[in-house]
Amino acid sequence: MAKPPLSMKPTGWFQVAWSDEIGVGDVHTMKYFDQEMVAWRTESGRISVMNAYCEHLGAHLGYGGKVVGEVLQCPFHGWQWNEGGRNVCIPYQDRPNRGRRIRTYPVVERNESVYIWHDLQGREPFFEPPDVFAAFGDDGGAAGYYPQQRLFRQGLELHPQYVLENGVDFAHFKFVHDTPIVPVFTRHDFAGAVSYVDFTITFSGDDGQRIEDVNSGVQAINGGLGIAVTKSWGMVDNRTISAVTPVDERTSDVRFMVYIGRMPGKDPARAERKGCEFGQEVIRQFTQDIEIWQHQRYSDPPALAAAEYEGFTAIRNWAKQFYPDGLGGSAAEVYAATRKG
Ligand code: FES
Ligand SMILES: [Fe+2]
């Protein structure tokens, strides 16, 4: 893949871990947005995500750092930092260094995921990460679904925007996902930081059917560039979360989660096995997309068919609000990309 002419440091909510990877007292090491980070959970169960280096002499808190009650203790000289990144104790001095602070990230745990708010300018969150159950305005909580099934692919050469562009890309379904006919979009709402896309789609029947007669579809909600949730209707009840988080200037981690609705039946174990198979099938379809995305080169301006113009223009304009310079890349890169003809 060519390095995308889009910033790999966009603003928004991004998944950095799953909640169950970080138990009480754990210090979890990771790298996102070109920053070494740690996520750690206090004794009372609260999670904190911060840059990994101690502000004293720069030890990496992910290698030997220890959770002590509600604070994180550096392995080098024992300085203690609270969940806000403030120094609260220097063990060999009677008062802490109140001025020094490790950069922390706003963090939300939702749908078994750990999301952080990333913004180069340090602004507060200006939208909420979508909840795969609550966001659709129905009462289907997690209890109505089998356990979450997951896919985790690390270090792929792709940009989060590629994944979102699926949401307007009606033509790929037939070729990538083998749908019998081309789906039709019934809603494109790109007015706010959270956008909404609905489409009618079927995975069954033959290519002789008319899309007007199809009684199934998908609703998608994009919470910025990092997190998208979907809900299906008229087919096996499923909800998905896709989360793409930039690691460095070239690569991203991709997480995909599926919940399949519980199915009634005399044999619950058998029904759950079936549910698990459906989940694996949904994951398989997502990996078909990944295969394209991880080798793709961002085309800008793209050669579009007439029917594609409106959707792609809308989503690309919408995406600009999340980039540091409002253009997607540095102005020079974007200019060069538009000229390469
Ligand atoms: S480097 Fe962390 S306490 Fe010294
Ligand atoms: Fe797709």
Automatic annotation (TrEMBL):
Pathway: Hormone biosynthesis; Steroid hormone biosynthesis; dafachronic acid biosynthesis. It comes from the Bacteria. Its cofactor is Fe cation. The keyword Lipid metabolism applies. Keywords: 2Fe-2S, Iron, Iron-sulfur, Lipid degradation, Lipid metabolism, Membrane, Metal-binding, Oxidoreductase, Steroid metabolism, Transmembrane, Transmembrane helix. It catalyses: cholesterol + NADPH + O2 + H(+) = 7-dehydrocholesterol + NADP(+) + 2 H2O; cholesterol + NADH + O2 + H(+) = 7-dehydrocholesterol + NAD(+) + 2 H2O. It is an enzyme of class 1 (oxidoreductase). Its EC number is 1.14.19.21. GO terms for cellular component: cytoplasm; membrane. Residues 13-116 form the Rieske domain. It is found in: Membrane. Pfam families: KshA_C, Rieske. Homotrimer. The two-component system 3-ketosteroid-9-alpha-monooxygenase is composed of an oxygenase component KshA and a reductase component KshB. Belongs to the cholesterol 7-desaturase family. This is cholesterol 7-desaturase. It comes from Mycobacterium parmense.
